[in-house]
Write a structure and sequence with these properties.
With 391 residues, the protein is of the alpha/beta class. The protein contains nine helices and 19 strands.
């Protein structure tokens, strides 16, 4: 196709898309466009920009246009929140209640151990925990005082500041486990680190779908905004280079990344991504008897060097069965899932943040190892890793 014909084709196609409504942001499938051209960014309504290209929601016409001009496009990987809202045994959710059954849940009590005697949960002051999830009900009295940031990466036109509405509920659950402060009336729940700061970043839709480009940009944004810890309670069966690169960026900036292992157990080597990534603290789930939940994902620890984090290994476990937390309906709910286990560990990391170390993220991760008590199966195993960290 010569230059003149190409120009005519582009003008005609773009005109057709605009006048017929074939292209509207958010209506197509998400793709990575391998071009840095400002023309194509504008034509395709760029969503997120990366070094080697950008992402956009492309219609069939735009895909044809990219093919005509030999522009490489690849589908963007989708992840999902590690749901705690289905009715099967691994994610049982009990009815909503207006006041908590226990202000200090068994999970927080287990993490604190004897240190909770005659005192209330505390700690995490000044530590920023970025929760990349479905958003959160930031007006809930139990976390209202802890939220310092709220942004949405999932909108039709991308990033929206001061917006992180949670119409799913998953993000609100994990936020309460981390930093519940009992509310203004002192009658709500306590999280593991009730003095920590919550940075709520909505990277997953109300249906629980998370595009890897939104997650990647969310991670980088959290790092650049001063996060100390990033919690990812989302996953998929295979990795994303965009997310892996973002995690590497976080680690290079001395930020700790924690991810839920997933709910695909008891099958071996069933850890989700990004929990499989060696730069990530991977967390499985136990019940109140410190038994690994049958559905908690298993690692590849059997074939790796013991007590050495390898790709696909389960690292540690946390309380994740029948955990009471806040709901996005401004009430309380009890649920289960590795997301909640990871939230407990994120809170503990904030509480025990090794701020005086040259690399506090690395030092805190190592401190979690020291706190970990072995549980059955014995040793560094696929079901429980190092064990459960307890004070």
């Amino acid at each position: 196709m010569n230059t003149k014909k190409a120009l005519v084709f582009v003008v005609f196609t773009l005109f057709f898309m605009m006048t017929t409504g074939v292209h509207a942001a958010g209506t197509g499938d998400r793709y990575f466009v391998k071009s840095t051209s400002q023309f194509w960014k504008k034509s395709f309504q760029v969503r997120n920009v990366f070094d080697s290209g950008f992402t956009a929601d492309l219609s069939e016409w735009q895909l044809k246009l990219a093919k005509v001009f030999n522009i490489g496009v690849t589908p963007i990987k989708k992840l999902n929140i590690l749901s705690t809202t289905t009715t099967d045994s691994k994610t049982d959710v009990k009815p909503l209640i207006t006041t908590p059954v226990n202000q200090i849940g068994w999970g927080v009590q287990t993490i604190y151990g004897s240190t909770l005697k005659n005192t209330l949960p505390s700690g995490g002051k000044g530590i920023n925990i970025a929760v990349l999830d479905t958003g959160a009900l930031i007006g809930h009295s139990d976390i209202k005082g802890q939220v310092v940031a709220c942004s949405d990466f999932t909108g039709v036109f991308g990033f929206v500041e001061n917006s992180c509405e949670d119409n799913n509920g998953h993000g609100t659950l994990v936020a309460g486990v981390i930093a519940g402060n009992s509310g203004a009336d002192g009658k709500g729940i306590y999280g593991v680190a009730p003095e920590s700061n919550l940075m709520i970043y909505k990277v997953c839709s109300d249906e629980g779908t998370c595009f890897s480009d939104d997650v990647s940009v969310g991670i980088r944004y959290a790092v650049d905004s001063g996060a100390n810890i990033i919690l990812l309670s989302l996953g998929s069966d295979s990795g994303s280079s965009l997310i892996s690169d973002a995690i590497s960026y976080a680690v290079s900036k001395k930020v700790m990344v924690i991810a839920a292992a997933g709910n695909d157990g008891p099958y071996s080597d069933s850890l989700d991504h990004p929990a499989s990534n060696t730069d990530v603290v991977s967390v499985g789930a136990v019940d109140d008897k410190l038994l690994v939940a049958n559905w908690s994902a298993r690692g590849s620890n059997k074939v790796s060097v013991p007590y050495s984090r390898n790709y696909g290994d389960l690292e540690i476990v946390g309380p994740g069965v029948n955990i009471e937390s806040i709901s996005n309906h401004n009430n309380y709910v009890t649920s289960s899932g590795s997301s909640l286990a990871a939230a407990h560990i994120a809170g503990l990391a904030a509480k025990e943040w090794q701020a005086n170390d040259k690399n506090p993220a690395k030092a805190t991760r190592e401190f979690l190892y020291k706190l970990s008590n072995d549980i059955l199966p014995a040793g560094d195993d696929p079901a429980s890793g190092w064990g459960i960290p307890q004070l």
